[in-house]
Amino acid sequence: MSLILRVDVDKPYGNASLTRSIASKLSEDYWFPDRIYKTRYLIHLAEFLGLCNKENIAGHIYFRMCTVPDEKIVELVKKGGHRIGFHAENTRSLETFSAEWNDFEEVVSPEKVSSFSKHGSGTLKLGKQHYAPYEPEKYKDWAMELNTRFYFGNGICKSIDDLIPKNDFYPNMFWIEREYRDNSFSGFDQLLKIAKNKDVPVLIHPCNYERSRVVANDFKELIKLSKENNIDWKVYE
Ligand SMILES: [Zn+2]
Fold first, then answer.
1. How far does the centroid of ligand 1 lie from the alpha carbon of residue 53, in Å?
2. Mean pLDDT for the stretch of residues 108-117
3. Would you state the pLDDT for residue 104?
4. Which CATH superfamily is domain 2-234 in?
5. Cβ distance 136 to 166 under 8 Å?
6. Which of 12, 64, 108, 149 is the most buried (most CB within 10 A)?
7. CA 230 / ligand 1 centre spacing (Å)
8. d(CA 179, CA 159)
9. Distance between CA atoms of 40 and 9, rounded to whole angstroms?
10. What is the DSSP code (8-state) at residue 124?
11. How far is CA 89 from CA 7, 66, 130, 138, 151, in A?
């Protein structure tokens, strides 16, 4: 079976330097329409997608309103056969969610938005527009309401059972970032063993891929191991 790549694009300018972290934070909170230093916008994502495209790995790429894909990114997304998803922030109510969803759809049009995921796992308020609680049951209803899909939850897998989907929904992810892996289930060997028989999702944040050599190396290592084990990468249609 396959690995499924989920990518959450959290940072407009990444966080590989102090200036870029500050630019990201300002842009996250105020959605600067004319981007602060446009040439640096989403360069970390461009680098990440460049690797995926070279390796023929398509994924579900989730964008916040403050990280909407610009032309350069749309081109890379199309070239790699990736799916555009919406990374929801203001999930206070169906009304606030659909307002944000509609704005996002409009900005990325004519590209299609195939599904959504939730920004944050419930503990921290991550910016001005962010509603912190993580309420997956609500989002499942909203997905039906808006005729879209909510495939991935924000849990951390602790066992094989945690990676089994329920009604096409994966409550837990295998995170490429080590600090979000559980000690009882943290090895690529464990992950790949399951991926031989089942589809399993992995989650990465391109800002961490750019900033941390460990994250980048781990992702590259997983690509290498997936090839050695004849495991494909797939996206939902
Ligand atoms: Zn996020």
1. 22
2. 96
3. 96
4. Glycoside hydrolase/deacetylase (3.20.20.370)
5. no
6. 12
7. 30
8. 16
9. 15
10. S
11. 16, 10, 5, 14, 16
Confidence of residue 217 (pLDDT cuts 50, 70, 90): very high
DSSP string, 8-26: EE--TT-SSSHHHHHHHHH
- Is the distance from CB of 63 to CB of 11 less than 8 angstroms? no
Query: Where are the domains positioned within the chain?
Result: 2-234
The answer to whether residue 130 scores a pLDDT higher than 90 is no
C-alpha 127 – ligand 1 centre gap (Å)? 11
* Buried/exposed code over 30-63 (b: 16+ C-beta within 10 A; e: otherwise): ebeeebbeeebbbbbbbebbebbbeeebbbbbbb
Distance 175 CA to ligand 1 centre (A): 12
* Spatial separation of the C-alpha atoms in residues 120 and 91, rounded to whole Å: 11
Put simply, whether the predicted model's pTM sits higher than 0.90 gets the answer yes
Residue where the block lists tokens 């409550």: 171
Give the number of other CB atoms < 10 A from CB of residue 237: 5
Tell me the three state secondary structure of residue 225: helix
